[in-house]
């Protein structure tokens, strides 16, 4: 499945009947018939394409889609999405907890590129090693 | 057990009751008729009440940008580095809190938003105290932290 651009997201929200609000960001909001309120926004920092980790959160949670295919289908057919009643789903976490990212930079002294390359287990191991050394002093 | 203050008594003693809530941590319950009830609570007491609510922002690094997803409020911030993404997330939380509290009846009735209420009030109270950034990015309680700061 390809990754969408921010312009694709904007076009989706327009086709799917979201309300648009412009301020520091362009934000979109939609209230579904079952009462759920959906919100998302656009970002023009960095790449035009939405990264895979963030995109998973956007389509699953913010757009409340059953699958990524629903997104592309709406763009192709120019028709709003028909959403089912939500099921409890727990997406796999693609990133690192922010507190851990911050501690690795500020306490361990790693650069952002080094942090990016670590899994959550490796990142925790680096921090725990630092704390262990601090306790030994 | 604190007694309930009627709305007319509250009007007459508002300054005194306000001081009791703020300075002495008293919970002032005010009633109008037999159904309508509200509570006056000092902001310090409110913060204590909300203290157990934690946030768990998650950093997602892509090739050209860093994003931070905040599951508790279903929001994200994005930037070219961590600092920029963090600032964007803090601004996004402020925007959401303002929207939520100004349309609270609507948001509290939304099945996917009602559960955000405690976290929204937690973020609101933290921001009023100038601690929003600190509260959003605090190390969670379940993580063991050394007692003294560790030099880099």
Provide an overview of this structure:
The complex is a heterodimer of chains A (137) and B (152). Chain A has helices at residues 6-15, 52-62, 68-77, 98-108, 112-116, 120-136; strands at residues 19-22, 26-31, 37-41, 96-97. With 137 residues, chain A is α+β, with helices and mostly antiparallel strands. Chain A folds into 2 domains: 6-77; 98-136, no CATH class. In chain A, strands 1-2-3 form a 3-stranded antiparallel sheet. In chain A, helix 4 (98-108) crosses helix 6. The model of chain A has no long low-confidence stretch (mean pLDDT 88). Chain B folds into 2 domains: 4-41, YefM-like fold; 53-136, Double Stranded RNA Binding Domain, CATH 3.30.160.620. In chain B, 45% of the residues lie in helices and 18% in strands. Chain B is built from 7 helices and 6 strands; from the N terminus they run βααββαβββαααα. Chain B has a 3-stranded mixed sheet. A 3-stranded antiparallel sheet of chain B has the order 4-5-6. In chain B, helix 3 packs across helix 6 and helix 4 (82-102) crosses helix 6. Chain B is elongated. The mean pLDDT of chain B is 91. Chains A and B meet through strand 3, helix 2, strand 4, helix 4 and helix 5 of A and strand 4, strand 5, strand 6, helix 4 and helix 5 of B.
Blueprint (SSEs and pairs):
The complex is a heterodimer of chains A (137) and B (152).
Chain A: H1 6-15, E1 19-22, E2 26-31, E3 37-41, H2 52-62, H3 68-77, E4 96-97, H4 98-108, H5 112-116, H6 120-136
Antiparallel strand pairs in A: 1-2, 2-3
Helix pairs in contact in A: 4-6
Chain B: E1 4-6, H1 7-12, H2 14-24, E2 28-32, E3 36-40, H3 43-50, E4 58-61, E5 66-70, E6 75-79, H4 82-102, H5 104-109, H6 117-128, H7 132-136
Parallel strand pairs in B: 1-2
Antiparallel strand pairs in B: 2-3, 4-5, 5-6
């Amino acid at each position: 499945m390809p990754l969408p651009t921010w312009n694709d997201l904007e076009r989706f929200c327009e086709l799917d009947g979201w309300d648009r609000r412009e301020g520091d960001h362009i934000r979109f909001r939609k209230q579904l018939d079952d009462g759920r309120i959906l919100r998302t926004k656009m970002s023009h920092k960095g790449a035009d394409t939405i990264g895979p980790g963030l995109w998973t959160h956007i389509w699953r949670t913010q757009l409340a889609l059953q699958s990524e295919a629903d997104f592309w289908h709406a763009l192709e057919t120019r028709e709003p999405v028909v959403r089912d009643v939500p099921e409890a789903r727990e997406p796999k976490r693609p990133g690192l907890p922010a507190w851990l990212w911050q501690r690795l930079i500020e306490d361990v002294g790693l650069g952002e590129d080094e942090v990016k390359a670590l899994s959550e287990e490796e990142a925790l191991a680096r921090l725990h090693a630092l704390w262990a050394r601090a306790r030994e002093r | 057990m604190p007694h309930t203050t009627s709305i007319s008594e509250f009007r007459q003693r508002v300054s005194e009751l306000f001081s009791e809530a703020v300075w002495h941590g008293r919970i002032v319950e005010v009633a109008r008729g037999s159904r309508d009830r509200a509570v006056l609570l000092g902001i310090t007491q409110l913060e204590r009440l909300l203290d157990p609510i934690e946030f768990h922002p998650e950093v997602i690094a892509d090739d050209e940008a860093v994003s931070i997803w905040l599951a508790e409020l279903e929001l994200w911030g994005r930037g070219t580095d961590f600092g920029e993404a963090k600032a964007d997330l803090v601004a996004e939380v402020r925007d959401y809190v303002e929207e939520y509290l100004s349309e609270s009846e609507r948001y509290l009735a939304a099945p996917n938003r009602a559960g955000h209420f405690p976290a929204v009030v937690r973020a609101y109270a933290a921001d009023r105290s100038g601690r929003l950034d600190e509260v959003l990015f605090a190390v969670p309680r379940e993580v063991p932290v050394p007692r003294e700061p560790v030099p880099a």
